[in-house]
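Annex B. Sample input.
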Amino acid sequence: MSVTRRTQIALAGLVAAGIAAAAVGVVPSLTDDTTDQKNIAATRDADYGPEPETDSGLVTQAGQITSMASGTISPDTMINRARTWLTANGGHQVPYSMQRVWKDGYRQDCSGFVSMALALGKPGLNTVGLADSRNGVTKHLSSTSQLKKGDLLIDASTSDGDFRHVVIFEKWANSSHSSYWAYEQRGSHGTTHRTLSYGIGKDNYDPYRPLKLSGSSSGGGGSTPSTPSAAWPVLKNGSKGTDVRSAQQLLIARGYSIAADSSFGPATRAAVIRFQKAHSLAADGVIGPKTWAKLIVTVKYGTKGQAVKAAQNQLKVYGYTLTVDGSFGAKTKSATLAFQKKHHLAADGVIGPNTWRTLLGTR
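Annex B, continued. Sample output.
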């Protein structure tokens, strides 16, 4: 029987740690790791253990599943619930564990985390339970092209010797839909918000949609909600991608000398803290809704500079063909108008607070 590369790496880590490699729920390695050694080290350091099975006292039973508030939960509420675990541990992420529950009553592994985000019964389903249609929690999607905010990518296989995991899809990270922003609970790291590619290609991950996620039943392609439901992304040390580059360009526009390299490192964090102090914000080095609201710069036809580059980078993510030249000309205005019309915004060609929030808070 063939064994996947991911399985080989994870098994090597388990042997190194002296743990039996039986049906265990293990969080996959970082997508940006470039060597097997890094992957094995990540596996070895994780808090592994047998994933609680369906009849375990650590798993929500069938009669306890349907405890969602008011029967439904919006995608934004789900994402906001997931986000709380990034800082719930005294300003830090909730640590990973398959055998413990957090203060809110949910198990501290990947499926417990997703159960918390969906407001399912405590202590949470396991990955198999989340994917099992008989539980009435999710439905299987035919393609990742249908993914929308709040959907799940689940590796729930119990027959191929592989490890189980589930992540929450937030939005696409690029116009080619080869990676996406996700929330997950993973070994060694705990709660994480990062770009992933699980399920995009040949692996054991399949896309699922929570059935009681309100407003999630229409067409696919990762289409975005209208302005009121767009939520600012949360960026912090370790975040990467276009949103980080845009934040860096906006900081540069505000006079901070940093590199716009799409990687949220110490220099970016220090600039964010200085910016927050200068604007009487909580100086935590995290770019959340309040910091975004102060950081954005309204740009329009004729505007030039780093803030325009930030807007152009965001528009390109949605597939608009632009040159990121920092000059708000006719093509940028045309793309802005098209974006605003598509997302039910006032189509004035000006990138102000509502358009910024929709550019950054959807996909």
